[in-house]
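Dear colleagues,

As part of the handover before I leave the project, I'm documenting each prediction I ran so the next person doesn't have to rerun anything. This entry is a single chain, and its sequence is reproduced below.
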Amino acid sequence: MKLEEEIKKSVELLKKGKIILYPTDTIWGIGCDATNVNAVERIYKLKGRNEDKGLIVLIDNVDKLETYLEKVPPIAYDLISHSKSPLTIVYPGAKNLAKNIIAKDGTIAIRVVHGKYSGATIKQFGKPIASTSANFSDQPTAKTFDHVEDGIKNGVDYVVTAFRNTVHSAKASTIIKVEGDGSFSVIRP
């Protein structure tokens, strides 16, 4: 299937509240509409993951941060623009997202992604994608498509065919937590 067709199919399914197995800008992930409570719940159930462990929200443009955060700490723009690798930032004051994706303390982890599949899909979808690594909770992260367990592949509504033989990154993104006052700390290097 051509990449454009793959993106179109993924967007159609995301709009219907379906969950997909897809290549992110780092590792393979499980994703859904980040504003759809039921779709987010399905991801937690598939992974066997406690809702206290949040999911990451993927957006395609830094300008969209303001749509999903009460206030964007100015340091976030500097961190994103200077990052040499995929960077997820945990922000205070989440809004306009499924309530079960927002942490109890009101924080949300967001990563701005680019890329031929993930960035383009999010742009066409017009909403953020809730994302998590394509593995069962407390199991090793699947570094490539071939490492994704059959139970995950069979538990999603659609498995993207693009980039199955490509490794975008051998590790998940760096995670930094930013506070409202502009201070920040590294959670995962």
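The domain at 3-188 is CATH 3.90.870.10 (DHBP synthase). The chain has a mean pLDDT of 90.

All the best with the project,
I.
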